[in-house]
Description:
heterodimer, A: mainly alpha, 4-stranded mixed sheet, 17 helices, B: alpha/beta, 6-stranded mixed sheet, 4-stranded antiparallel sheet, about 30% strand, elongated
Amino acid sequence: xSKILLISMREFKEKLNSKSFLIMTLIGPLLILSFLFLVxxxxxxxxxxxKVVVSDPGMLLNNYILxxxxxxxxxxxxxxxxxxxxxxxxxxxxxxxxLLEVNPKIFQNNTALLFYxxxxxxxxxxxxxxxxxxxxxxxxxxxxxxxxxxxxxxxxKPLMLKTANIKTEENAAIKRMSGWVGWFFSVIIFLFIFxxxxxxxxxxxxEKSNRIVEVIVSAVQPVKLMYGKIIGIGLAAFLQFLVxxxxxxxxxxxxxxxxxxxxYDPENWKAGDAIAxxxxxxxxxxxxxxxxxxxxxxxxxxxxxxxxxxLGYLLYASIFAAVGARISRVSDVQQFLIPLTLxxxxxxxxxxxxxxDPQGEMAFWFSQIPxxxxxxxxxxxxxxxxVENAWExxxxxxxxxxxxIGMTIWAGRIYKNNILIAK
Amino acid sequence: xxxxxxxxxxxxxGQSAALRDVSLSVQKGRIYxxxxxxxxxxxxxxxxxxxxxxxxxxxxYVNGREMIQEDVFSIGYxxxxxxxxxxxRVKDYLLFIGRLKNMSKQEATVAIADWASKLKFEEWQHxxxxxxxxxxxxxxxxxxxxINAPDLIILDEPFSGFDPVNxxxxxxxxLLLKQQGKTIILSTHNMASVEELCDHIFLINNSEKILxxxxxxxxxxxxxxxxxxxFKGVMMAFANALWAGYEIIDxxxxxxxxxxxxxxxxxxxxxxxxxxxxxxxxxxxxxQEEKPTINEIFISTVNRREGGNNE
Lengths: 423, 311
């Protein structure tokens, strides 16, 4: 055991002293944080309120489109014809982002024109269209009947189909969204196995090609050398992940305090509620932010993440080590990487199906197969596993442990028989 | 005292036999030459002694009992194709190897300091191995082999790549180790080193041991002895006088009608017959029996064996 420790400590120190490890340790979380910041920023940009000047020379709208103000869009009605040139150059209209032309014959031609300085985006465009449509409908309804418009609204109310788990009453849409959080954790597992598994493969092959291996195996059994290598590189991977987690966590707190200081203030989320019942609120554009800060149960996810990350790494690293022992030239290493990680890549692809049906046959079987289970289980865990199916997670962990033990014995044999053969 | 004994070792790799019925006995405090052409099975034999690979049949004994895994720590092995961890610092590398060979950190540190002063690499201790010259790196490999003062030292081509100065340093160290009672097995193609250092040789060819003996005894046992004769006179006359009773192997013109000739006796002739044959033709200056070199023994034994096999 002490030999394995010695070898793993040497590997660990060598990784720690390598520039690429240090760079990756710092750059990795910065890249993820930059990506998150970008997504948040784009979200914020797209939710910036826009001002619309509505040209209504026929006074069809009776001076309003929305009864209540909403933070996202402000409509100002002008009962005059506004020329497009005026909108472009007249100082009076420079504060407005959009010009909505409501022509007096709109009930006949069913067409309004919307001019923009900067593309408002499809979601806002749809919102404006729906708002105008509703208002015109209301006006027409008042003209044709004596009934209050609210009666018509009651009649026309769309049917909502809410899907929920009978026992937990969990919302299926939110659950699916959480599945993508699991997928994000799966991607991290994949990345770490890919990067550090490759280092095991390369390290074994390098030791073999530069002939240090014969010096070492004259003092320690080949299998111990293999275990030491896998553990040492694994420790470096684990340390890197801890640094990543810490930096990302701190980064998220900093981003939150800078960009969303009142994220948990319900008022911020309910500003458009009145209209949200009538229209699809555009506030839900912030669902990604909510997902990152509210939906993820980091304690549960991180605990299981460590289990699947460690077991997945150990399983794949022993396969990589066995293959590395058979390769005599370091230049041949690259070509083995993709075939060896193919089960993981495949798992990432089928996660979409697992998210659609997390308790289905496919999700179950791929969560039990040890080469795919570290990826698939993170998605299933993020979506929540019913109590009666909890055994599936434990069985997949047991299968993974058993396969890892079997694999290391097999890999150790391959390693021992091939490490000194140079072809 | 027998420190190592190999008994009827067999090893196959797939269809080809690497070793066939090889037995050796190694006595404490002597230097052994393990010789053989490339591919003869020397490295396989060394790996079996180091327990890196297991024999298919046969047994290895250390100090009179069957070898166990722990015994490898009493063996220092310098492989022919030896690498280093180029990113490690010299001291860290030697410390790592020492610890792998069951030394405590303190023991290893003391040994490193001793060897650094002996082989003059004190100022290189904190450098990365990748920054060392080839000769310096080889010194480090040599020190790593013997850092734990093993009783049995196996050196596979220890002089390859060394410049003459460093080769001499290592040669002296090997002799010093012998004086300290260490046993050394030297696998090399450098016959001059074998001649100078070895007490005993094992010759392996085509997976079999074909020669095993004390260096001096082997030289004595050579069937066809070679004699050199130095004379003053005409070479043609000398050659004509010998006729069929002798076989000239080589000759050298020393100038001023002087020459040296190497020859073998034929038709049962003795040294006195040689004198009688040439004393009236040339003026004899010196005659002596030329002992064969290890190189000659190596080549003639291998050739004889292969000739026999071909027949």
